[in-house]
Design brief:
two-stranded antiparallel ribbon; 167 residues; five-stranded antiparallel beta sheet; Peptide Deformylase; binds cobalt (II) ion; alpha+beta; binds 2-phenylethyl (2E)-3-(3,4-dihydroxyphenyl)prop-2-enoate; single chain
């Protein structure tokens, strides 16, 4: 397993739409393992393949306090949503930025596991928010897209500069 580099906003590759996984092979399982390792190493609760520059519909999540409840969603689709809640979100691709975002309170997602077996999962609280946040990545959407132009402009300026310094 290996830690992969996480793309940072405003990298244009974060805007790519991910395509479905059709091959459930050893390479896929290596990628999933790397994604968990990368997420845990960076103290994240969720990571989409898009963030490590693999544009396939794969998400890993662990919102548990003791980091022992990994959830992997392949080709996920939200088939039900209810309620509205506002929560502070962050993102490994938008470091140092935390803002309130409105999301559905409870979602049911249909997905496949690493072996291609289909399952459904109903989630609320942080897990529900995290699922919605990560699925957005697969569409090339970031949580800052939901903020006002003014806020997004400030974030863009700050991170664009940080990115320039890092190169
Ligand atoms: C998405 O985000 C999420 O800025 C996952 O310096 C977050 O794991 C969904 C992180 C909150 C719902 C609520 C962010 C780590 C991790 C940072 C993350 C940072 C270090 C973000
Ligand atoms: Co994110």
């Amino acid at each position: 397993m290996a830690i992969r580099q996480v793309l940072h906003y405003p990298d244009p590759r974060l805007r790519q739409r991910a395509t479905p996984v059709d091959l459930f092979d050893a390479d896929l399982r290596t990628l999933i393992g790397d994604m968990f390792e990368t997420m845990y190493a960076s103290q994240g609760i969720g990571l989409a393949a898009s963030q490590v520059d693999v544009h396939r519909r794969i998400v890993v999540i662990d919102v548990s306090a003791d980091r022992t409840t990994p959830v992997c969603l392949i080709n996920p689709e939200i088939i039900h949503r209810e309620g509205v809640e506002e929560r502070e979100e962050g993102c490994l691709s938008v470091p140092g930025v935390y803002e309130l975002v409105e999301r559905a309170e409870r979602v049911t997602v249909r997905a496949q596991d690493g072996n291609g077996r289909e399952f459904t999962l109903t989630a609320d609280d942080l897990l529900a928010v995290c699922i919605q946040h990560e699925l957005d990545h697969l569409e090339g959407r970031l949580f800052i897209d939901y903020l006002s132009r003014l806020k997004r402009g400030r974030i863009h300026k700050k991170l664009e500069k940080a990115q320039r310094v890092a190169l």
